[in-house]
Every structure is written in C-alpha cells, then in structure tokens.
Amino acid sequence: MDKNEKAFYEAKAAVFKALGHPTRLWIAEELKKKEHCVCEFVEKINADFSTVSRHLAVLKHAGIVGDEKRGMNVFYHLKVPCILNSMTCVEAVIDAQLQSQIDMINNKSDTNINGRI
Amino acid sequence: MDKNEKAFYEAKAAVFKALGHPTRLWIAEELKKKEHCVCEFVEKINADFSTVSRHLAVLKHAGIVGDEKRGMNVFYHLKVPCILNSMTCVEAVIDAQLQSQIDMINNKSDTNINGRI
DNA sequence: ACACTATTTGGCTATTTTGCCAAACAATAA
DNA sequence: TTATTGTTTGGCAAAATAGCCAAATAGTGT
After folding, report:
1. In this structure, what are the phi and psi dihedrals at residue A36, rounded to the nearest 5 degrees?
2. Predicted TM-score of the model (pTM)
3. Would an 8 Å CB–CB cutoff place A44 in contact with chain B?
4. pLDDT tens, position by position, for chain A (117 residues)?
5. Spatial distance from the CA of A103 to the C1' of D19 (Å)
6. Under the phi-then-psi rule, with left for phi > 0, alpha for psi from -120 to 50, and beta for the rest, what region is B45?
7. What is the predicted pLDDT for the residue at A108?
C-alpha cells in the first residue's frame, strides 16, 4: 500500500469515524430533514452548548455538514445527504447481530438441556 | 429521546465507528473480495499479529464480519457487504471537502490581490 | 508426550476522544 | 456604550482506543 492509497483510506475512515458517535449520527439524521442552528440541538440533546458545538465541528471537519452564519445563529446543513443512504444496511447489520446473539443463547440452552439429560 | 431510541443510535454509531479506522476499513474492503485468514492480513499490513486480531475483533463485535475456524486458521468474511455500498458517497464527501479547500485557497489569494491593488 | 503454528488475550503505555466549565468572541438590542 | 444572546475555544480530567510485547490457548503434526 503506497502513501497515496494510505491517505485515501485515512480520509475515508475519517468520514465513518465522524458518524461513529450516537450524538453526531443523530444530528446528521436531524439535518437530513432540515437545517438547524446549534441552539436547537442543545435543547433536544441533554448536553452542554460547547459539547454540541464540538460535535458539529467534527462533522464539519469531516466534510459532512456545512455551516452558515445568519444573524446571531449559526445554521448547519447536511452537505452530502447520500451519506445516510447506508442506514438501512447498518440496520441490517444490527438485526443480523441481534439474531446471531439470540441463536447463541438458544444453542447454549440446548447444550444445557442435552447436558442435563 | 427515550432509552430504546438512544440504544438504537448507539448501535448504529458503533457500526460506523468500527469502520472509522483506516486499517479496519481496508480489511473490510479486502473481505468484500474474498474471505481471508488473519495471517494473510498480517503479511499485508505492517502490524503485529495481535493488532490485526484486535481490529478483526472490533469488526466482528460490530457485526460487520464473521469468523470461522478451519484447521489452524481463522477465516474472516464480510457478513453484510452492503455496508460498503456507501463508499462512492464517502468519496464524494472527500472530493467536496477537497474542492472547498481549494476554493478557500483561491478566495484567500483573490482577497490578497484585491488588498494589494 | 512434544514441538510447532495460528490466533487470542492480558498488561502496559502513549495518544485520542469526550464532556464539562469558564472565558473569549460576535452580532444584536437597549 | 453596556448588556444580552448564541457560538466557539482553551483547559482540564475521565474514559476509550491503538499498538506493542509476552503469555495463554487451540489445533496439527511427530
């Protein structure tokens, strides 16, 4: 893997990483519906103003959201909405994972039953 | 946001987080082509056996890959290939980001030029 | 039984991330 | 001008992550 390719993987991973936090993922989904100022998020999330601002900065730095100052507020919008198209697949991952956990529990109790007989 | 919804966002974010590391993202893309044992990755990545094993464990824990022991080797495979479908969009994010950086540089030098006149 | 190979795990340190508080900044209102 | 509101930034401490080494584990072959 040469230097360019490595840099490319780092850039791509950074995008995933930015979405890899529940609050930021939630913010991104909210921004898919419509733009929001920071204060609107602070109301809905139980977190400090500075915390929300930092999360938004992470998303902005990753290139996922953009911001625009209007009056006293800074409005954030989703720059690349397609980034959330994978959500159905992500949900499929979670479902599959949940299912395999259920299977594991079932197999374990089967073993126990067999062990008892 | 109630407890269930919060847990749902945490689970979804965990999937993104798992892909949010260049090595793990590279591994996932390799696994899209075909299954691999750990040793094959160790050869290609310049990292310790234990490091690679841990990265694979993270992907497995997130539900993205599965593993199967055959003989002396453990083979990993991509459980949910659709997770990489978003890659073209991720690349679009990077392109857009790169472009906005170029624009910023251009605007800055325009300002300088105007300032000089 | 022994040695050998592939993999995981425990333990450690260095680095990064998170989230809060307080302070700084910016735009508006009085 | 001062006060006020919305936002960002500096600084800090707690927690999580990454990556290495060494030890443990599991399966194979002798």
Report:
1. -145, 150
2. 0.90
3. yes
4. 788 899 999 999 999 999 999 999 999 999 999 999 999 999 999 899 999 999 999 999 999 999 999 999 999 999 999 999 999 999 999 998 888 778 777 765 555 444 343
5. 33
6. beta
7. 58
Helix (H, G, I), strand (E, B) or coil at A1: coil
β-bridge mates for residue B75, sequence order: B37, B68
- Residue A33, amino acid: K
Tell me the C-alpha distance between A67 and A78, whole Å: 9
Do A96 and B20 count as a contact with CB atoms less than 8 A apart? no
The alpha carbon of residue B63 and the mean position of all alpha carbons in its chain are separated, in whole angstroms, by: 14
CA dihedral A20, A23, A28, A33 (to 10 degrees): 150
> How many other CB atoms are there within 10 angstroms of residue B63's CB atom?
25
Q: Which of A41, A22, A39, A42 is nearest to A31 (CA)?
A: A41
Q: Which residue of B has its CA nearest to A92?
A: B80
